[in-house]
Amino acid sequence: MSITNFPSGNGSASAGIPITKVTVPALAEMKRQGKPISALTAYDYASSRLADEAGIDLLLVGDSLAMVVLGHDNTMAVTVDEMLHHTRAVRRAVRRALVVADMPFGSYHGTVAEGLANAVRFLKEAGAEAVKIEGPRVELVRALTEAEIPVVGHLGLTPQSVHRMGGYRVQARTAEAAHKLKDDALALAEAGAGAVVLEGVPREVAAEITAELPVPTIGIGAGPECDGQILVFHDLLNLTFAPAAKFVRRYADAGSVIREAIEHYREDVEHRVFPSDEESYHLPAAARAGLAAAAAGRTA
Ligand code: KIV
Fold first, then answer.
1. Which tens digit of pLDDT belongs to each residue from 25-49?
2. The ligand 1 atom nearest the CA atom of 218
3. pLDDT (tens digit, 9 = 90+) per residue, 99-136?
4. What is the DSSP string of 127-151?
5. pLDDT score at 290
6. Which long-range contacts (CB under 8 A, 24 or more apart) does 66-73 make?
7. In terms of Cα–Cα distance, which of 209, 182, 214 is closest to 195?
8. Helix or strand or coil: residue 90?
9. What pTM did the predictor assign?
10. Contacts for 208 with CB less than 8 Å, ≥ 6 apart
11. pLDDT digits (tens, 9 = 90+) for 230-242
12. Which of 20, 42, 161, 243 is the least crowded, having the fewest Cβ atoms under 10 Å away?
């Protein structure tokens, strides 16, 4: 058995077919072969298992969980402990995809030593295989790489910078800003980043960076030329309770499906048609007869 293969028969493998685990070097190989990388955010066991079984290559435990799972207005509030909790659930579900954990706001914005210590927790305590950090933090990426912690960079519209950016705005819209973004991406790759997420940048800028970067770009709102694409799980399935951003494609309306199913259940309860007799447990015949005899004795 290859060390990159899980044995089959447990988890999502079809009988007899080993799963080839996606690793950070495998992403680079996919870029080399021109094979698009599919990525999706993940936050819990059931949805991660479905995404893994559907063949998604990279599952990111995104700090977007602050908004789509925990109901905050932005990503700033989520803590390292909350991110660890969700990363563990995803880890338990996933057999094939690369599991990447987002480092939350504040967990790597101080010293490199603090960032390193927090990153270690994601691998040691939650089973992540890489961490993602926002911004051109080249020194930190180098330190993490030297500590054997694979890193995914994240440039462009970086949601943890929402207050500095003055909102969620498309970035790198001038030639100067586009050059700076490209330099930042190249510096992250040179420092050891295994991939770089490009969020909310013009297609042309992302295409040029993708062509020049030795490691894969994963785009979100960055056009089709990126080496891979990532979407937020709740955006893809219409579970956000908000209009979709321009770059989102809704592949299903799970919100409506779930709401209708729950309404149907409530109506069945209210009309006493759930549970049915078939959905109920029954006494064995002998015990039922004994119960009936005892009841008859009481009324005699
Ligand atoms: O937290 C997140 O969801 C992200 C995106 C890249 C999808 O960082």
1. 999 999 999 999 999 999 999 999 9
2. 6
3. 999 999 999 999 999 999 999 999 999 999 999 999 99
4. --SEEEEES--HHHHHHHHHTT--E
5. 86
6. 66/104, 68/41, 68/43, 68/232, 68/233, 68/234, 68/239, 68/240, 69/43, 69/44
7. 214
8. helix
9. 0.92
10. 178, 182
11. 999 999 999 999 9
12. 243
Mutate which of 67, 86, 161, 220 for ligand 1? The one with the most ligand atoms within 8 Å of its CB, which is: 220
Pocket of ligand 1 (CB under 6 A): 41, 62-64, 102, 197, 199, 220, 230, 232
Q: Three-state SS for 243?
A: coil
| 29 in catalytic set | no
Q: Mean pLDDT across the stretch 151-177? A: 97
Check 125, 199, 260, 270 and give the catalytic one.
199
| Mutation pick for ligand 1 pocket among 197, 198, 226 (CB with most ligand atoms within 8 Å) | 197
pLDDT digits (tens, 9 = 90+) for 79-88: 999 999 999 9
Q: What is the residue whose two structure tokens read 């979407």?
A: 231
Say how many Å lie between the CA of residue 245 and the centre of ligand 1. Answer: 14
